[in-house]
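Colleagues,

For the teaching module next term, I've prepared a clean inverse folding example: a structure given as tokens, and then the sequence designed for it. I'd like students to try predicting residues themselves before seeing the answer, so please don't circulate the second half yet.
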């Protein structure tokens, strides 16, 4: 099968883009990216993988300090070191507890909506049984443009996308519609592609030759409303001790799309919304 998308050869170009990037809107000090999706999809692993691709070495910060039994506990934001002491890339990733089936499991959809608006402070302990209240000490009553989310990223595992239950799909579509109403652009990340497809496990460069993954991307597009060009298959770093150029290429290509999507939302966004 011919490749249905071409990404190879972009790693150095994407790395240079990240190193040179500065938000167009001077009011935006750091582009804010919010990750959401089903529990266990690999949100924290994706943050670590982005960090690894940028640093040129495998890191595990997000998994080490904010998860118990593979589940994220708190609303937590991560910066990415740019090389020198105290220097960071002008974008941050915020991690949330995953969505789960059931009314008292996983993050509340209303908490995701509040996070998008910038109303939740870092360190908030997510309560699956109830949404954050305005009198909570971690409720931000007056969010600035820097507190608000500029890009929403939905993370879904390729191993489970085809068995997403109807309740999870309803919750995820509700989040997407809320982001649309806030004019927040959206990107989807399809993780665990090596576990889902034997061809990709044998050679990561087969990702865009895989009929199975192409079908998953098309199904995900139909089910949740993402355009196929906004869905990016990636392999997260898990047990590796060194980075890999092909793995980095997929991660950095997705990151490039995330950053450029954020620019579309912040370049002409009003201060108060």
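(Answer key — instructors only)
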């Amino acid at each position: 099968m011919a490749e249905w998308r071409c990404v190879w050869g972009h790693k150095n170009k994407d790395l240079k883009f990240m190193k040179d990037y500065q938000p167009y809107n001077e009011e935006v000090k750091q582009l804010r990216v919010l990750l959401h999706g089903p529990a266990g999809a690999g949100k924290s692993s994706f943050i670590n993988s982005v960090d690894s691709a940028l640093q040129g070495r495998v890191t595990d910060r997000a998994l080490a300090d904010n998860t118990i039994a593979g589940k994220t506990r708190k609303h937590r934001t991560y910066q990415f070191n740019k090389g020198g002491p105290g220097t960071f890339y002008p974008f941050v990733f915020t991690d949330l507890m995953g969505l789960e089936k059931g009314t008292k499991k996983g993050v509340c959809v209303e908490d995701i909506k509040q996070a998008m608006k910038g109303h939740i402070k870092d360190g908030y302990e997510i309560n699956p049984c109830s949404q954050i209240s305005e009198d909570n000490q971690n409720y931000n009553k007056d969010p600035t443009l820097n507190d608000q989310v500029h890009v929403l990223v939905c993370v879904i595992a390729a191993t489970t996308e085809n068995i997403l239950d109807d309740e999870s799909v309803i919750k995820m579509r509700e989040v997407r519609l809320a982001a649309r109403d806030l004019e927040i652009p959206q990107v989807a990340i399809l993780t665990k592609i090596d576990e889902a497809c034997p061809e990709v496990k044998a050679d990561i460069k087969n990702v865009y030759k895989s009929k199975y993954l192409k079908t998953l991307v098309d199904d995900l597009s139909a089910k949740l409303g993402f355009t196929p060009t906004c869905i990016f298959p990636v392999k997260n770093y898990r047990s590796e001790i060194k980075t890999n150029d092909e793995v980095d290429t997929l991660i950095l290509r997705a990151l490039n799309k995330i950053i450029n999507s954020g620019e579309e939302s912040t370049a002409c966004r009003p201060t108060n919304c």
